[in-house]
């Protein structure tokens, strides 16, 4: 019989295989453990509804963008401009609605168009030049960081754009992106539903559409994917635009919610998205990951952000926590990567 | 537990008479120059369906240039490639593929972290539904892959496992089955057994025989005489950019094939040069 002669590397333990096929599992376990840990450290305060509301409210803006950044990472690319893009979207909406007296819905569509164009710019430059997306989007990051504030000051005389609620169409838009369920401090924003919907759609795209297959293939082995006809460049450009679109959504949601926009916002957030994606099991080199994982990564950040002061610790420890988290997650990623290399070369 | 299994019924005698049938692929005066260097010239050969054609020769003999020209990676400087008797022009592997000429290279175009069925349909995903509800037809994909592998007598086990868990032989089997599924009539295999152990090589060679029996024209490049002898119907021996000999398996023994593949007369020449320099 030829059985067993041909498969020396077939893993015969089901659980190891399942572990490999479920990238977000580690982050789910980590989120649960952290939640329990901070619950004990804070004498149960974590389980109170207001605390949970604050955790989710901290997590969602990072979570929405992290999902898009996660898909982009699976395709093998980074976007360092996603954070300042939030500021760009908010500032665009603010300037159009307050200075130019534009209807908010029109401002919404125009700002989306500009953000998508910026995503297109990122994607096309990466694809055309073949340079690392790290460099290309770092350029966009600094470009936008300057332009956001400079243009806001040019048009409004200030980096803080206020009174967005006076624009026409505000009430309807507020109802869609910023409605509150429950009363403070136990309030939950409608943003959480958007976040959930986005996770579901992204998961659907990733696992059950051909575009999802292209994303995995593009990040897993670009040349192999190209050889069998996967539109590698189109996939990447599309994901840069998706990331810009996610940043736009968060930017305009916050602008409507707070009725004001700090044009300089979002600097530094780009790393949170990447950390959330990596913690959520997306492989930095691409080819592996999920849409749920980055969302859980953002949730972990929310748990730590709220849990650390709840436990009575200095909130500066948040940053140290973030560093440790990234290191551990990357190490696990690296081990998975090594495993693949070893098995592939045999 | 999943294993690759190739059933052992491949040693039946060939019933067809290939020489009486028109060739699937044919070259006429095929040649290639790189500047002043002639890499290949005047190759006239007719290859038939259902046969394994081993391309044999020393390094630089022109065999890799030959197969690169057949699969569209290199254009011809002179001569024609004919498919079913009609000249075809192609300038890329993708175009060659559309004519049914597919090359499976050593890297196999398999993405290690993707599941078997995702790899099988990579770039040609079957879909259901319309518009935004269009989706990757996963059950169909898994069934079809299994059916295609069954046709070749290959069992790769769980279609959901990641491709990197496959053995070298299994990877070859998946790549070959995929090429056939996408309509390969001429299948070019570049050293498929080069990285495999004895048992896996045996299984892949058996698979290659089976592919040929199902009516595909297989063009096999391998440096190993034992492998070529076992699997080949016909041997195209290249030397210094020319098709030196065109032999059928009946006319060969393993010894004579090994001799040819080791460089033929060059071995004698080399031996005499060495002997001369030692004694002289």
Largest interface: A-B, 39 and 44 residues
Shape category of chain B: globular
Contiguous runs where pLDDT drops below 50 for at least 5 residues of chain B: 10-16
CATH class of chain B: Alpha Beta
**Largest sheet: spatial strand order of chain A:** 1-4
Strand content of chain A: under 5%
Name the CATH superfamily assignment of chain B: P-loop containing nucleotide triphosphate hydrolases
The termini of chain B sit apart by: 63 Å
Summed over residues and divided by their number, the pLDDT of chain A gives a mean of 87
The tally of domains of chain A stands at 1
Give helix % range of chain A: over 70%
Characteristics:
heterodimer, A: 346 residues, mainly alpha, two-stranded antiparallel sheet, two-stranded antiparallel ribbon, 14 helices, globular, disordered C terminus, B: 280 residues, alpha/beta, Rossmann fold, six-stranded mixed sheet, four-stranded antiparallel sheet, 12 strands, 33% helix, 24% strand
Description:
The complex is a heterodimer of chains A (346) and B (280). With 346 residues, chain A is mainly alpha-helical. Chain A has one domain. Chain A has a two-stranded antiparallel sheet with strand order 1-4. In chain A, strand 2 and strand 3 form a beta hairpin. Chain A is globular and about 55 Å long. Chain A starts with 13 loop residues before the first helix and ends with a helix. The N terminus and C terminus of chain A are likely disordered. Chain B has 280 residues and is of the alpha/beta class. Chain B has one domain: P-loop containing nucleotide triphosphate hydrolases (Rossmann fold), CATH 3.40.50.300. In chain B, helix 5 packs parallel to helix 6. The longest helix of chain B has 16 residues. About 2% of the residues of chain B have low confidence. The chains are: A mainly alpha (346), B alpha/beta (280). Chains A and B meet through helix 1, helix 9, helix 10 and helix 14 of A and strand 8, helix 5 and helix 6 of B.
């Amino acid at each position: 019989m030829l059985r067993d002669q041909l498969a020396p590397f077939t893993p015969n333990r089901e659980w190891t295989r399942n572990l490999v096929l479920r990238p977000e599992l580690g982050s789910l376990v980590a989120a649960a453990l952290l939640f329990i840990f901070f619950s004990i450290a804070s004498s149960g305060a974590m389980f109170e509804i207001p605390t949970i509301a604050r955790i989710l409210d901290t997590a969602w803006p990072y979570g929405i963008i992290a999902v898009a950044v996660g898909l982009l990472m699976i395709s093998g690319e980074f976007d360092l401009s996603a954070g300042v893009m939030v500021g760009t979207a908010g500032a665009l909406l603010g300037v159009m609605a307050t200075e130019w007296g534009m209807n908010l819905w029109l401002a919404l569509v125009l700002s989306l168009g500009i953000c998508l164009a910026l995503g297109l710019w990122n994607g096309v430059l990466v694809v055309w030049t073949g340079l690392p997306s790290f460099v290309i989007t770092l350029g966009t990051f600094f470009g936008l960081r300057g332009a956001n504030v400079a243009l806001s000051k040019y048009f409004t005389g200030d980096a803080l754009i206020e009174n967005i609620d006076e624009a026409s169409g505000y009430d309807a838009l507020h109802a869609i992106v910023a409605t509150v369920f429950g009363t403070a401090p136990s309030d939950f924003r409608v943003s959480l539903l958007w976040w959930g919907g986005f996770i579901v759609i992204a998961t659907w795209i990733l696992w059950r559409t051909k575009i999802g297959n292209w994303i995995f293939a593009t990040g897993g082995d670009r040349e192999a994917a190209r050889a069998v006809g996967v539109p590698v460049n189109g996939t990447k450009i599309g994901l840069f635009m998706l990331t810009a679109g996610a940043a736009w959504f968060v930017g305009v949601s916050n602008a409507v919610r707070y009725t004001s926009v700090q044009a300089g916002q979002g600097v530094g957030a780009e790393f949170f998205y990447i950390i959330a994606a990596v913690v959520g099991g997306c492989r930095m080199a691409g080819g592996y990951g999920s849409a749920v994982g980055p969302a859980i990564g953002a949730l972990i950040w929310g748990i730590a952000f709220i849990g650390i002061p709840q436990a009575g610790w200095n909130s500066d420890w948040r940053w140290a926590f973030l560093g440790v988290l990234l290191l551990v997650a990357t190490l696990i990623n690296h081990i998975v990567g090594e495993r693949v290399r070893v098995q592939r070369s045999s | 537990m999943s294993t690759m299994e190739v059933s052992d019924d491949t040693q039946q005698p060939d019933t067809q008479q290939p020489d009486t049938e028109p060739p699937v692929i044919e070259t006429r005066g095929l040649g290639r120059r790189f500047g002043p260097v002639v890499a290949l010239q005047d190759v006239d050969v007719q290859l038939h369906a259902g046969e394994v054609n081993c391309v044999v020769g020393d390094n630089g003999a022109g065999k890799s240039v030959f197969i690169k020209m057949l699969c569209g990676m290199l254009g011809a400087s002179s001569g024609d490639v004919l498919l079913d008797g009609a000249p075809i022009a192609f300038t890329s592997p993708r175009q060659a593929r559309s004519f049914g000429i597919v090359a499976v290279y050593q890297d196999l175009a398999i993405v290690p972290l993707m599941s078997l069925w995702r790899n099988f349909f990579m770039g040609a995903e079957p879909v259901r539904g319309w518009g935004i509800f269009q989706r990757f037809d996963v059950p169909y994909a898994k069934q079809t892959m299994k059916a295609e592998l069954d046709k070749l007598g290959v069992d790769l086990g769980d279609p959901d496992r990641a491709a990197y868990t496959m053995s070298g032989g299994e990877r070859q089997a998946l790549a070959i089955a995929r090429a056939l599924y996408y309509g390969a009539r001429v299948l070019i295999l570049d050293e498929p057994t080069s990285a495999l152990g004895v048992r896996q090589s045996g299984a892949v060679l058996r698979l290659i025989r089976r592919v040929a029996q199902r009516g595909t024209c297989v063009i096999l490049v391998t440096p190993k005489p034992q492998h070529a002898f076992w699997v080949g119907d016909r041997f195209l021996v290249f030397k210094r950019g020319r098709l030196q000999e065109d032999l059928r398996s009946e006319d060969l023994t393993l010894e004579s094939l090994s001799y040819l593949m080791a460089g033929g007369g060059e071995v004698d020449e080399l031996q005499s040069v060495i002997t001369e320099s030692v004694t002289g």
